[in-house]
Write a structure and sequence with these properties.
This protein folds into 2 domains: 192 residues, Up-down Bundle (Growth Hormone, Chain: A); 207 residues, Growth Hormone, Chain: A. It has 18 helices and no strands. Helix 3 packs antiparallel against helix 4 and helix 13 packs antiparallel against helix 18. 77% of the residues lie in helices and 0% in strands.
Length: 452
């Protein structure tokens, strides 16, 4: 699941209210509600496709490989364009960028509804990904700018949960609408929902009304640091073996989650003989389980690593190995309640590495480039996991059947575990070096708390 909350970090600033709220509480929560609504629309437009895989396959006689590519191209665009789109947003303004993004993915989803061929659908999905890349890079930044800094962790967690809820709604509602009115209406409903929200957002949320959230002089010096050339950033983004291990391990592990979200509706359709609506609803529950696991992995990681920060790696490794064992077992069991239980447990752990990996990256890169580091993590998650997961599973399914493909998918966790083990091995050495390089000398230069 592409939970791409990698927006540019929002520096703490002086507020215009002694209460610590940059704008009125009422307006801040309105901004949150509308931004959260757009996030739901984002993921609903992305995941509705998975609910109608069986219908597209039957109507257009598509191979599973082509079906997988329709899902993977969105994650690919999100991964490739999140960072460039954040730069564009800084130039054009965040609110304007959000409106353009939401309008683009909504119109592209409507274009999917009237597609007459695989090629037209592919182009529509590509533009869905472009729009979602722009939203993911700046949406959370707008929300954080209107709330006190003490609420940032809670709000960030809510945005992660929003991705899970949007995925559930996209698959379940999309399946129900498609079952009753046809697959074109499923895309149409998602596209219209996004357009309506974009119009409301444009009326209520404006750069002028958000302006009090910035400190005086923000226009002149609001940026945390002058832009750095990419050539100067790369060595710092990949400055240690352990941070590379976090990038690679996180991306490879999300290969599994991406494959499950894309192909479970088809799995339930083919092997449990469920209708499109029921298969979508069942897959929606599993999408929610994956999202809960993603959030839960971060919570557990923070809790167990308060004293020994290196335990974050242990949480990631445990999730990776647990998903491997449970999912491999699940897809070798006969269909029925026992398989569903094992599948649910494996799905819970399949993306549990996301939180620990993000914390590792945050603490293994200088704070001045944290936004770029998270964009790099998003790129790794997309290029190594969320984009190829559905596509490769589809290729394998054409050769050995969907069940055979899903039996192989969990094996990627072996490579993810190796990456996390290598990162853990070098972690303390790399952290000491980075701490010495980027913190002032003296008592403050000791190893920092890694609870973020």
């Amino acid at each position: 699941m592409g939970f791409h909350t990698t927006a540019e970090s929002v520096p703490a600033t002086e507020t215009t209210s002694p209460s610590g709220w940059p704008v009125s509480r009422r307006y801040a929560w309105i901004v949150f509600a509308l931004s959260f609504g757009l996030l739901l629309s984002d993921y609903m437009s992305r995941q509705v496709l998975n609910a109608v895989f069986p219908m597209l396959k039957a109507e257009w006689l598509l191979s599973d490989a082509r079906l997988g590519s329709l899902s993977g191209v969105v994650a690919l665009m999100v991964g490739l364009l999140t960072f460039p789109m954040s730069l564009v947003a800084d130039r054009w303004g965040r609110v304007k960028s959000l409106l353009i993004a939401a309008t683009l993915w909504s119109l592209a989803t409507l274009a999917c509804a009237v597609s007459a061929s695989y090629g037209e659908m592919f182009v529509g999905r590509l533009f869905v990904g472009i729009g979602e890349a722009a939203y993911g890079s700046v949406g959370i930044a707008v929300v954080l700018s209107v709330f006190p800094t003490t609420l940032r962790a809670t709000l960030s967690g809510a945005f992660i949960a929003g991705g899970a809820f949007g995925s559930v709604l996209g698959v379940s509602i999309g399946g129900a609408v498609a079952d009753r009115f046809g697959w074109r209406w499923a895309f149409g409903v998602m596209g219209l929902f996004g357009l309506v929200l974009a119009v409301v957002y444009g009326v209520v949320v404006t750069e002028r009304r958000l302006r009090p959230a910035a400190a005086p002089g923000a226009d002149e010096d609001g940026a945390a640091a002058p832009p750095r050339p990419l050539r100067a950033l790369l060595p710092r983004l990949f400055s240690s073996v352990s941070v590379i291990g976090a990038y690679v391990g996180s991306g490879l592990q999300l290969f599994i989650a991406g494959a499950l979200i894309a192909w479970l509706p088809s799995y339930f359709d083919r092997y449990y003989d469920l209708t499109t609506a029921k298969a979508g609803a069942a897959a929606g529950v599993f999408a929610l389980i994956i999202g809960i696991g993603m959030i839960g992995g971060g919570v557990v990681s923070d809790r167990v690593s308060r004293v020994l920060p290196i335990r974050k790696w242990a949480v990631a490794i445990t999730c990776s190995i647990g998903a491997l064992v449970l999912l491999t077992t699940a897809f070798r069991l006969p269909t029925g309640p026992l398989q569903i239980a094992a599948l649910a447990a494996g799905a819970l752990l399949s993306a549990g590495t996301a939180g620990p990996a993000a914390a590792m990256v945050a603490n293994l890169t200088p704070v001045t480039i944290s936004a770029t580091a998270f964009a790099t993590l998003t790129l790794a998650n997309s290029l190594l996991g969320l984009a190829p997961g559905p596509a490769v599973t589809g290729l394998l399914a054409d050769r050995m059947g969907l069940l055979g493909a899903l039996r192989l998918v969990p094996l990627i966790a072996v490579a993810a575990t190796v990456a996390f083990l290598i990162g853990r091995h070098y972690y303390e050495r790399d952290l000491r070096r980075i701490t010495q390089d980027h913190l002032p000398a003296g008592p403050q230069a000791k190893e920092p708390e890694l609870s973020s």
